[in-house]
Specification:
Elements lengths: L1 E5 L4 H8 L7 E4 L1 H4 L13 H16 L3 E10 L24 H18 L3 E13 L4 E13 L16 E3 L11 H23 L2
Parallel strand pairs: 1-2, 1-3
Antiparallel strand pairs: 3-4, 4-5, 5-6
């Protein structure tokens, strides 16, 4: 069985990736399943691709197992390049590392809903998901764009853990993140999970 190490400690992402149906003979594994302790990787890259490379290489260096990572940026239609959040989704909103959860929430809500106001109450945007597979000698890349709509209205469910989810709608359904059914969530993520699966299958040529 060929193994691909998921270069993340995020339980939600791991659960999502584990649902991806890879071709026979290839399986996802986690650091915990391998019994390997891997420290958090500092995401100091200049963009999403560089961050993804850092994470994939870091997990490979600890495990010697082919690793795949993801890094995501946010891009808003109509904004100049200098104003794009990209990989600095929190930092561009004025968030600091020592901010409380409530402060992070308040800053992000104000920053992004103010942008939506500039465009009449809603603005099209997308998450750019960059995937990197690293085999110890070469990096392989895939990417996908998940369309969303940033609004000025907040969802009635206040989620301090994921501030962005409070004010954007999935472009595939026009529904707020917290209102998505399981099927609608899969549809929203499908373009991204498909890109990841194709990256891995192209690598193994299966």
């Amino acid at each position: 069985m060929k193994q691909v190490l998921l270069a993340t400690h995020n339980k939600s992402k791991i659960a999502r990736y584990k649902k991806i149906k890879l071709s026979k003979g290839v399986e996802f594994v986690t650091a915990a399943e391998l019994g390997v302790i891997i420290a958090d990787i500092s995401e100091t890259g200049s963009d999403e691709w560089e961050n993804a490379k850092l994470k994939a290489r870091g997990f490979y260096d600890y495990s010697s197992v082919i690793s795949v990572s993801q890094d995501t940026g946010l891009y808003i239609n109509g904004l100049p390049d200098s104003e794009q959040p990209a990989k600095l989704v929190k930092r561009i909103a004025g968030v600091f590392d020592n901010d409380s959860q409530q402060a992070v929430f308040d800053k992000m809500v104000k920053y992004y809903t103010d942008i939506a106001k500039r465009f009449g109450g809603e603005v099209d945007a997308y998450f750019l998901d960059i995937y990197c597979l690293y085999d110890g000698s070469k990096f392989y890349k895939a990417e996908a764009k998940r369309p969303i709509i940033i609004t000025t209205n907040l969802h009635h469910k206040k989620d301090l853990n994921f501030p962005l989810c409070n004010f954007y709608k999935a472009g595939t359904s026009g529904k707020y993140y917290h209102d998505l059914t399981d099927f609608e969530m899969e549809s929203f993520l499908e373009i991204s999970t498909t890109a990841m699966r194709q990256l891995i299958e192209d690598y193994f040529k299966v």
